[in-house]
Amino acid sequence: MRNPCQLGLACPHRGYDEDGFDCCLHPHTPETIRENDLAGYVEDVFCPLVEPDSELIELLSIPDEYPPNEWRELLRRLSVHLDRPYTDSCMRQTILRLAAQEAWDYYIGLGESP
Question: Mapped to the 3 state alphabet, what secondary structure does 8-68 carry?
Fold first, then answer.
C-alpha cells in the first residue's frame, strides 16, 4: 500500500524524524505536534485520511501489485500522451479519458493492453 504522501501528494500531517525519514503525524501537523505525541513511519501506517474500500485505495495499491518497471513504463507512456500540445481541448479530454481507461483495464485486469 502506498499512501498519498508517498506518491507526492501534499499532506499537512507529514513530518520527519531526526534522521530525515518521513513520518505520519496525524492528527497533528509539524507545527502542533508535541514531544510526547506518537508518530509512525509513513511506510508502516495506512493513511488515516483515505476511506477504506474507496476507489482511491484501489488506485493507491496498484503500483504494489505490479513490477516497478511495468509501472514506470505506464507512467512514462501516460506522460508522453498528456504532455503533447493539443489545440482542440475536446481532443485532449478524449486522450486523457482513453489513457486512463487503458491503464484501468490493464492494471485492474479487465483486458490486455493493445
Answer: CCCCCCEEECCCCCEEECCCCCCCCCCCCCCCEEHHHCCCCCCCCCCHHHHHHHHHHHCCH
Three-point CA angle 57, 61, 67, nearest 5°: 170
Q: Tell me the per-residue pLDDT of 56-97, one tens digit each, with 9 for 90 and over.
A: 787 777 777 778 788 778 777 777 666 655 555 566 677 778
Look up residue 71 and give its three cell numbers: 509501472
Statement: the pTM of the whole predicted model exceeds 0.70: no
Peptide bond into 27 cis (omega under 30): yes
First to last CA, the chain: 28
